[in-house]
């Protein structure tokens, strides 16, 4: 709301800064070029707000979004750098450059510290390895061949080491849903940039008992727009090792927002006068609270499965 209100307050701010009885505000008058810069900054902030909103959710997997969101945001800021309005304004150029540098800094930390981001992206059937196999120049610079190869080997090693004893019970599955093509028409629309250029592939192979072959077959099948949790529930019998692996990695939150929400709710249960509750009591109270919130949301009593 603040971004939108700022953009639509042009006339009010101009009237205030030009009013003869408000000379104290005269030095803050904005020119037409200044207002163009303000409009760009509003679009810029709104774009990043959309990314933050997507990453801050707690009702769907978010860790698999991380690398692609970095890619989309860095692509967007790179386009801003090349725009004429930014190149003609030193403050804007400095801000965009600082933004890109900070994004690259945190991206490097994410890819250097952990392979979990790669694992989660691969195990999300909406993305798989499409980002790492992209012919886009920026993707090639962000994800080097050596890094992708090392992560792919780590994925296979992890699957062999920790997920090799799952029951291999395969049955024939239905084809996955096709993905409609997406086109980006609005350069400041994060949602369109997010969906753009997701490739599809159409190769269906019979199942195998080998982890390496299971990974290969999974990656060679089409991408899907289906929720990853739903997709894995329907296809766990085809990829038993990867299904269990996906369960473990896709449950990791991409940000600390969901954890902070839990701590915020915890203050209602654990107070100064009630600070000696056992872990089991706290868990029970939190479960009851979650059930009450769910009943309010669905409008009927919640009956857990036996």
Automatic annotation (TrEMBL):
An example Gene Ontology molecular-function term: protein dimerization activity
One Pfam family this sequence matches: Dimer_Tnp_hAT
SUPFAM superfamilies, per database record: Ribonuclease H-like
InterPro entries referenced in this protein's UniProt entry, alphabetically: HATC_C_dom, RNaseH-like_sf
Name this polypeptide is given: HAT family dimerization protein
Domain HAT C-terminal dimerisation, residue spans: 215-289
Domain of life: Eukaryota
Organism the protein comes from: Rhizoctonia solani 123E
